[in-house]
């Protein structure tokens, strides 16, 4: 049980310059005894309102140096403070505020919300067990207008999809990775590096791109690129929800439409998902 959707803004000041971190937190506990379920005995139950207040107090006292560290702080607090807690899981998600710039100069106290992917993390711990940390990015919308196709697929009497060697590749990406046991990582730096890897693998070189024969291959390229560049990542999950675009037939309007005007296919849409990890992690 626990408290969901604990939303708050943490403001931090350094002289005249101000910093913001707006987050949404879910904190869940499992107690050593299920007596509140079986017997209606609430003597071990930490009220969810108390859980909410603890999260807010930790934000006030510790700040939020990174989402991962804040999730770790939540886990550590419940494990060290309450002997009746057998398991704790903290999920933290960030609102994507970015500092405004005017003529290249960063503003000291103004920000803009930019929907270029939402950062999140999870930390979980069992009593007498390791602290595990996960992080990720979701709602990241990506598109490339060429260098993508889909050919040579299995066909039978139900197949109506034509082969395409040049199409738009567009989708909404969810990516979650595991660090394994928690170590003293620079979580902010690692998250930014992984985001860069995702964009590099999706797009390819800026002057020519890279051909994608399928959404599945693109998902795998993203995973392989992250694992090859970021040694701290042990397992990475990627889900790519696809958005398809159809070329508008303008023949009745007396026009030739050479893939210049397209409309998105709202539903149904495709989805590709894969989890990839280092061999040593799975062997362990």
Helix content: 25-40%
Count the helices. How many? 6
* Main sheet: strand order: 1-2-3-6-7-8-9-12
Specify the CATH architecture of the largest domain.
Roll
Helix/strand structural class: alpha+beta
Beta-strand portion reads 35-45%
Net shape: globular
Tell me about the largest β-sheet: 8 strands, antiparallel
Indicate the radius of gyration in whole angstroms. 23 Å
Low-confidence stretches: none
Number of domains: 2
Order of helices and strands: EEHHHEEEEEEHHEEEEH
> Quick check: average pLDDT?
94
Extended strand count = 12
What is the CATH topology classification name of the largest domain? Answer: Urate Oxidase
Describe what you observe in this structure.
This protein is of the alpha+beta class. The chain has 2 domains: 1-129, Roll (Urate Oxidase), CATH 3.10.270.10; 140-283, Roll (Urate Oxidase), CATH 3.10.270.10. The chain contains 6 helices and 12 strands. The strands form 3 sheets. Strands 1-2-3-6-7-8-9-12 form an 8-stranded antiparallel β-sheet. Helix 4 (187-203) packs antiparallel against helix 5. The longest helix is centred in the last third of the chain and has 17 residues, at 187-203. The chain is globular, with a radius of gyration of 23 Å.
Which features characterize this protein?
Urate Oxidase, 284 residues, two-stranded antiparallel sheet, peroxisome, urate oxidase activity, globular, 25% helix, 2 domains, eight-stranded antiparallel sheet, alpha+beta, 6 helices
Write the layout of secondary structure elements.
Elements: E1 2-14, E2 17-31, H1 35-38, H2 48-62, H3 67-81, E3 85-94, E4 97-102, E5 105-113, E6 118-126, E7 131-144, E8 169-181, H4 187-203, H5 215-229, E9 235-242, E10 244-247, E11 262-265, E12 271-277, H6 279-283
Antiparallel strand pairs: 1-2, 2-3, 3-6, 4-5, 6-7, 7-8, 8-9, 9-12, 10-11
